[in-house]
Amino acid sequence: MKKIHLLLLASVCLAVACIKEPVLNETKKLSLNLPNQPDSYYDASFDSSLNHKAQLGRVLFYEKQLSLNNTISCGSCHKQAFAFADNERFSKGLENKRTSRNSPPLQDFSNVNLFFDDAEGPPNPIDLLPGFGGNEFFWDGRQNNLKDLILKPVANHIEMGINDVNMLIPKLNNLPYYKELFNKAYQSEEITLDKISDAVAVFIQAMNTNNSKFNKVMFNQVSFTGLEKSGFDLFFGKYPCGSCHQINPGSYFSGGFMNIGLDDKINDRGRAAIDNNSFNEGAFKTPNLKNIMLTAPYMHDGRFNTLDEVIEHYSTGIKMNPSLSPMLRDEKDFNAPRKMNVTNEDKKALIAFLNTLTDPVFVTDPKFSDPFVIN
Fold it and tell me: CA–CA separation, 135 vs 145, rounded Å?
């Protein structure tokens, strides 16, 4: 009988060893692809430490050890190829659980109004002022400070699952590459939650995407095609797109929060759950349109797979509900939704124009890429 127990115990130990060994081997093969000098995320004359902070932030952004089971990173749901949005309707989090809203692109963060607090040293581009639809983050705008936002997904039980974010400090201390990175960024090897948040925020703040054809047209470097120019005119003329999606060279701010008539019965309160304003029932942040061709699926719940479907919604699909934006109500009957009746020709022109907002450099830039390499 004793032999049987010993055999069973040996079998269990062998099974556990077989489970753990690949993980250990995988960790040993992991290395970082980082230049000896950090990439120029920022002008070094502005703050010489910012490039080191951004490089540390890049590593943390793709660090899967920031999740409870070491399988999810920020980059898992915000993918560079899709302008740091997710190409799935609902992102896959811890243990394959799905988020309840679509992951928005992170380029929203790169063109916000800043203030610089020099009370504790050199200017830091991360302390953000609340603004008109530009500096409120998440679909419902519940956060207005980028640095404070960073650890929210980490602590979320569906996304990354670390309920006590203090767990991050010993986890990162056990990884060999962080002491040098923190020392370069903060002149100290000490890892703190504040430094983690700051570094990731500095990295995200560096995500400027200003190499689109639209930008080049605005600076007289190239010209629109006839179809693109027609779409541009329609966007700011015949159709009221430009009233909410404010587009200027270098800044593609959104127009606050709007209920756009996705449903006649509201299932997700959106902004109203944050400010308790009945006018904001079912209202969500109006996204900027940078790289819009790459950030599908669209809307807060990812219900539309193509821009064709999005335009069709505004054309004939707006649904009436009590908090529908006045801009999307019929001009003659306030209690009826607007029908823009976009023609097929106009739709093609609008999409051609929206395609000029794509920045191919941004989505392939090595300094924003995953630095982890399996050797």
Answer: 7
